[in-house]
Hints:
51% helix; Rossmann fold; 7 strands
Amino acid sequence: MKHLGGKVAVVTGAASGIGRSLSAQLVAEGMSVILSDWNAEELENVRAALAASGGDVMACDTDVSNAASMQALADAAYAWRPQIHLLCNNAGVLGPQGEMLWTVDDADWDRVFAVNFRGPLNGIRAFLPRMMAADHEAHIVTTASMGSFSATPILPCYISSKHALLSLCETLRLQLKEAGSKVKTSVLCPGYTKTGLVAVGRGIGDEEAADDAFDEILARSAVPQVAMNPDDTAKIVVAAVKRGDFWIFPNAGSRDRIALRIDEILTTAP
Length: 270
């Protein structure tokens, strides 16, 4: 979709981080935006701010891990506007930080996979059939992670769920191509981004303490990383959607992180 003005987008995880920045950028592009998040209070704050700036927005409290809740979001979106042109499957959680994977309990594993993997799957199931039936240009962007390519010792559930999500996105791309669909798809693979996700995962309310927690993850990365601002990430995503790109790598150094894994595989594979 080279032109986004006048079209309609849905963004999950819109109350904070990349989702909030992406929603604002899409509004700036002239899109009508359905904002979705589990945090109703923060979601309303974002809706009010975008509406005050002239944005055409609607908010819908949604639990992406629940298929019925995502279907309700789709029903509300299509009741608000007759067509949806862009779905941003963006909501995500970090889960336990620093625990050995064999000590993490089932409830935490289930919660992270429910949001990070089943959430986007629920979004695809709720929106894609109607997008395809409309037979017009449309696009689905799913937020995976650079963690889909390289692991870290302190985020076992998150990394595992994002690896699975990457496979889902690649499969979706192939199936849409085989179906001859006008719907395109992208996988967003951000590196470290100043979204507050680390602080939320650790229950940190203090901004300085949150920065310290973030720096800890950076320090334990195998490849030096520079954190991105979510507003800059959002601009890169919008440009990629307009070009029809599948892969979206907003962070400098992404190639090095991928090469670190691939090079090791290639030196050992027959």
